[in-house]
Amino acid sequence: YQRRVHGRNRSGTRLVNWVGITVIMVKYGYEPHSSNNASKARGSDIRCHYKNTRETVRTLQGMTLAAAKKYLNDVLAHRRCVPIRKYKGGVARNKQAKEFGFTQGRWPTKSVVAVQGLLRNAQANAESKGLDTDTLFLKHIQANKAQKQRRRTYRAHGRINPYMSSPCHLEVVLTAKQQAVKPPTPKV
């Protein structure tokens, strides 16, 4: 197909057209050094709380893909928790958080399910590239705040208050572990 650049939208991302199909080329928070041994996936405006999702993805950073999937399944089964590091006001203490050196933890189900779907997508992208999924690890995973969605709730005396949701954007980059190469022995 012929690729033609149509221009840029308001946020500065390129708009590319393939024979009538317009695709928005997005930027990631991290670009791998070599795209041959990396796989990317992202989701926009995901309807789960940003704060819970941020804590979930922060815990997964640097894990292998298999370890991350097992950890998320354990969180859904309440065998392990997500430690709450930053947004911890009013969060109860939990013994399972000791594993990570923290005292507060939760089991954010919607966030975990959203991250599981993103990891499945990134794994499928890696398989389509021909990468070995056993050697993949989470080089970069990030949650960003998305635009708040507005509803309203009705209060006493005829007043109306906002009833906002806090969705998030997710992105992940999986990279294959590289084999360690021994330095050459110096010739004397």
Helix content: 10-25%
Q: Would you tell me the structural class of the helices and strands? A: alpha+beta
Please indicate the percent range of residues in DSSP E strands (runs of 2 or more): 25-35%
Q: How would you state the average pLDDT, rounded?
A: 89
| Total beta strand runs | 10
H/E element sequence? EEEEHHEEHEEEE
Low-confidence parts: none
Distance between the termini: 57 Å
Radius of gyration: 21 Å
Strand arrangement across the biggest beta sheet: 1-2-3
How does the overall form come out from the CA principal axes?
globular
Q: What's the total helix number?
A: 3
Q: How many strands, which pairing sense, and closed or not: the largest β-sheet?
A: 3 strands, antiparallel
3D architecture notes:
- The chain is α+β, with helices and mostly antiparallel strands and 188 residues long.
- The protein has three helices and ten strands, in the order E-E-E-E-H-H-E-E-H-E-E-E-E.
- The protein has helices at 50-60, 65-76, 109-129, and strands at residues 3-8, 14-18, 21-25, 38-46, 82-83, 105-106, 136-145, 152-154, 160-162, 168-176.
- The strands form four sheets. Strands 1-2-3 form a three-stranded antiparallel β-sheet, with no helix packed on it.
- A hairpin with a 5-residue loop joins strand 1 and strand 2 (14-18).
- Helix 1 (50-60) packs across helix 3 and helix 2 packs antiparallel against helix 3.
- The longest helix has 21 residues, at 109-129.
- It is globular, with a radius of gyration of 21 Å.
- The model has no long low-confidence stretch (mean pLDDT 89).
